[in-house]
Amino acid sequence: MSGEPSSEAILACKGLSKHFGGVRALSDVSFEARRGEVTAVIGDNGAGKSTLIRCLVGVNVPDDGEIFFDGRRHPFANPDEARKAGIETVHQNLSLIDELTVVQNLFLNREIVRRVGPLALLDRPAMKREARAMLSRLSINVPSVSARVRRLSGGQRQAISICRAVGSGAKVVVMDEPTAALGVQETANVEALIRRLREQAVSVVLVSHNFDQVRRLSDRIWVMRAGRVVATVQSAETTGNELVALVTGAA
Ligand SMILES: Nc1ncnc2c1ncn2[C@@H]1O[C@H](COP(=O)(O)OP(=O)(O)OP(=O)(O)O)[C@@H](O)[C@H]1O
Q1: Per-residue pLDDT, 97
Q2: Whose CA, among 19, 100, 212, 251, lies 20 to 30 Å from 186?
Q3: Per the confidence metrics, is the pTM higher than 0.80?
């Protein structure tokens, strides 16, 4: 990528570098996720995928390089800034609170309140209604919105995390290995959910070790090796073998 990112880019970076002590986690990485697409990032263990994502969403501060969001240069000092701009991250280790209900998790830190004179009271019926609507828009099934999330399966919890991200109006949802801990059926459910996000014009950045999954789900695949982007391929035009070769350096 030379100059500014393309006009299709929603989240991009140019010349990003990051080291941790003597380890160069990222070296001169340029990347872009396009509007309304699912963009996958693949690579072997330690290739730099998570560091790239963490720099894009303000968790890590890069040593060098520029980050662009929605057409503007936009370095995020922390994840809250990225969230306010419209980027939500669904982490490998889910960020739900086990002892809270589905509704409470969906509205954590953005509760709906109603004013009664000088008081601001939680509007629980409104949050329940809205929670049901949010889940229904994404065809997510849970036993009850009043269930504590610790009672839910891994796939349902992952779906709630994604629903919360989208419910806050995110333009981009970044997912780091969203199905790594899930069984076959639950993985299929989360994959269906990612497809629905795409249908609803939410841009998705997907980090995954599962090459079949990224070929099924994504529009474009960025391949990283040893802290660098080594290839960008169209998902529809690649094969599992080609991806393995690119990731391992045999290509
Ligand atoms: N906070 C940190 N402190 C020290 N080294 C780090 C830190 N985060 C990442 N690294 C190192 O940076 C390199 C890239 O790590 P990163 O986690 O980005 O790779 P990855 O592609 O996401 O790997 P994996 O698939 O195993 O999660 C690795 O050598 C890793 O050990």
Answers
A1: 92
A2: 100
A3: yes
| CA terminus-to-terminus distance, the chain | 21
Tokens matching residue 183: 């069984």
Higher pLDDT, 203 or 3: 203
**125 within a domain of the structure (yes/no):** no
Closest atom, ligand 1, to C-alpha of 52: 18
Examine residue 48 and state whether it is found in any structural domain, yes or no.
Answer: yes
Task: Render pLDDT for 180-218 as a digit per residue (tens, 0 to 9).
Answer: 878 888 888 889 989 999 998 899 999 998 999 999 999
> What is the C-alpha to C-alpha distance for residues 216 and 249, in angstroms, rounded to an integer?
23
Look at residue 1 and tell me if it is in a domain: no
- pLDDT tens-digit series, residues 230-239: 999 999 999 9
Q: Is 20 in the pocket of ligand 1 (CB under 6 A)?
A: yes
Q: What is the pLDDT of residue 168?
A: 75
Q: Name the residue with the closest Cα to ligand 1, atom 4.
A: 20
97: amino acid identity, one letter: I
Q: Smallest Cα–Cα separation from 141: which of 130, 125, 153, 129? A: 153
Mutate which of 16, 26, 49 to test ligand 1's pocket (most atoms within 8 Å of Cβ)? 49
Q: The complex's ipTM?
A: 0.96
Note whether 10 and 172 are within 8 A (CB).
yes
* 183 assigned to some structural domain: yes
Query: Whose Cα sits closest to atom 29 in ligand 1?
Result: 46
Q: Whose CA is nearest to atom 8 of ligand 1?
A: 51
* CATH number, domain containing residue 223: 3.40.50.300
Domain limits at 201?
9-94+152-248
